[in-house]
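Quick one, T. Sequence first:
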Amino acid sequence: MKVIGRKDAIRELESCEKSGKSEFVCLYGRRRVGKTYLVEQTFANYFAFRATGVEGGSTRVQLKSFHQRLLESGDTARQVPKNWFEAFSRLEQVLAADGIRRSVHGKLADRSSPALT
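Structure tokens:
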């Protein structure tokens, strides 16, 4: 399915991906307007790590969800992170591990990406 009517947003996301430095992008807006879909379609399989929030979830629920994504990405810690500092510290370890692929612009990309093999 093609993204329609988001040319400025797509251009901004692509600009961040092509830049020579790390970028932090935050998308926000009403529910069900296609934020996740926009990112997935723009970047296809170029994800080193990907997680989305749980609507209405407490901090504990959000950390459990994040923990599950960490495990799927190679984290070996069995316990759910106690706080976001620990969660992001573990994410940093996952991203520093061998085997993380990079996009065509040198940015980190999903190890299992068929486009990069």
